[in-house]
Design goal:
single chain
Length: about 475
């Protein structure tokens, strides 16, 4: 990748050498190929040190040898053990930071954070190879920087200047904020870079290039002031009376503020990175740089993995003492809010059945072609069991229809998942879906999109996104 600010990001298309953690065999793996040893099938691989990738020009938070998360905190925070009353008090001279606000559902938050981490790498904050060789994610919660309003040390009120990618993409600013930490936000219009059409979000390359160029940001801020951006849209059919630009600025924006994002070069804020695409994205999978360089390396925690394995053992009745889960195909059936989304986006069960049969066929092709990225089992794909997750109540007629097909359905009520915490059910669903050899998902669901990418990248599997008809856009 290009590590210098102001130059467009170019995804690495060259082969990369890995060493297997189990048998130590060398493996040359191309971009988008599953990370798996061709000798023993192990999925834990270490990237060999290469010279062609430059180190971070501003500050390398990771040295040539991976460091511990606590060491990274000591290099990144002035007071790693104590949140301060202001953000600036925690910023280490010479280190640059980027932050964002998460919004919407769990999957969308993951996709947004995945992209902001890649932006961090592009802007020269991290040495990307070392980032992946480290065992921890160098992402720090805001609570480590600044105390909350409820903490004994009351935080001081301050205002953060934040670029609004959300306003550029969909016309509104992020309604989330940092108020728990006494941080107000002044939003700034972001350039509306050329797109294929209004349905496509801004591309990753021009966004990253703009953020890395002080000159580009300075020139754009002058336009923002001159044109009082962003302006509210005129209501169709409204009287064409002269409009004052000064009074027509969207709420939450102050284009004439004396303080701008340039006044604190150490800290960059984006209100949302979910609405930022990659020119390699091919729906429904996001196989471009954000997933390839960051997302596929973000795994579930050991505790989530342990609970997931316990659930799968119970679901598939794996005998005590046997660790290997039998091969299966996972299906994510989203209904709920899709009953009203775009009229009615709920798919018939027959579409998922067709998807399962197509996945079986694709798995058989991979095995016949001796594709060793896919784990081998004595059971043929035609006999793989099917595990479904859905937001339908377990006692519903729809779930009974699923079970009538011989498919297994995750029942969090039976497992008392709620006792673990509110967020455990969707996380465990995601972990179980990702453990399959094949996957069938729901069209327009980012939860399904992530599961599809995980099955393909982690397991060498295949995925299908079910939709009502092949022509559906």
């Amino acid at each position: 990748m290009n590590g210098q600010p102001g130059q467009p990001f170019r995804p690495n298309q060259q082969e990369v050498e890995y060493s297997c953690a189990d048998c130590a065999a060398g493996n040359t793996i191309k971009p988008r190929e599953p990370i798996r040893c061709r000798e023993c099938g192990c999925r834990v691989m270490y990237k060999k040190r290469i010279k062609r990738i430059p180190t971070a020009p501003v500050v390398a938070l990771f040295t040539k040898a991976p460091i511990r998360y606590t060491e990274m905190l000591e290099r990144t925070l002035r007071f790693p053990d104590t949140p301060q009353t202001t953000l600036q008090a925690q910023l280490v001279p010479g280190v640059e930071y980027i932050t964002t606000m998460v919004r919407a559902g769990q999957s969308n938050q993951f996709l947004a954070l995945m992209k902001v981490i890649l932006l961090e790498c592009f802007l020269g904050k991290y040495d990307l190879p070392s980032f992946f060789e480290a065992t921890h994610i160098p992402a720090i919660p805001l609570s480590s920087f600044k105390s909350r309003l409820t903490s004994p040390t009351s935080p001081q009120h301050e205002t953060l200047q934040c670029w609004s990618l959300l306003e550029t993409a969909v016309g509104i600013r992020n309604n989330r904020n940092f108020s728990d930490h006494a941080i107000d936000t002044n939003f700034w219009a972001f350039p509306d870079f050329p797109r294929d059409d209004h349905l496509h979000p801004p591309q990753f390359d021009p966004v990253a290039t703009f953020l890395g160029s002080k000159q580009a940001k300075k020139a754009w801020l002058q336009q923002v002031r001159d044109r009082w951006l962003p302006q509210k849209l005129l209501v169709e059919g409204a009287a064409t009376t002269p409009i004052s630009l000064e009074t027509n600025v969207k709420d939450g924006f102050d284009p004439q503020s004396r303080v701008t994002p340039l006044d604190n070069p150490q800290l960059t804020c984006l209100d949302s990175t979910f609405y930022m695409s990659d020119d390699e994205v091919l729906p429904p999978r996001e196989s471009g740089a954000p997933w390839r360089e960051v997302g596929q390396h973000l795994r579930f925690t050991p505790r989530v993995e342990a609970v997931k394995m316990g659930y799968l053992r119970r679901i598939f009745k794996v005998p005590v003492g046997r660790d290997r889960i039998p091969p299966f195909i996972s299906v994510h059936i989203r209904r709920g809010d899709f009953a009203t989304y775009k009229g009615n986006s709920m798919l018939s069960l027959s579409r998922y059945q067709e998807g399962v049969e197509e996945v079986r066929r694709l798995l058989r092709e991979k095995i016949d072609l001796k594709d060793y990225s896919l784990e081998r089992f004595t059971t043929p794909p035609e006999r793989y069991e099917v595990l479904a997750t859905t937001d339908e109540p377990h006692h519903s007629e729809f779930v009974k229809e699923i079970e009538a097909l011989g498919w297994k359905v995750v029942d969090h009520h039976e497992f008392f998942t709620a006792e673990l915490g509110d967020w455990w059910a969707p996380v465990l669903d995601a972990a179980m879906l990702a453990s399959a050899q094949g996957f069938v998902g729901t069209y327009r669901s980012t939860f399904s999109r992530l599961a599809a990418m995980r099955v393909e990248s982690w397991n060498g599997g295949v995925s299908i996104i079910a939709r009502e008809n092949a022509e559906e856009a």
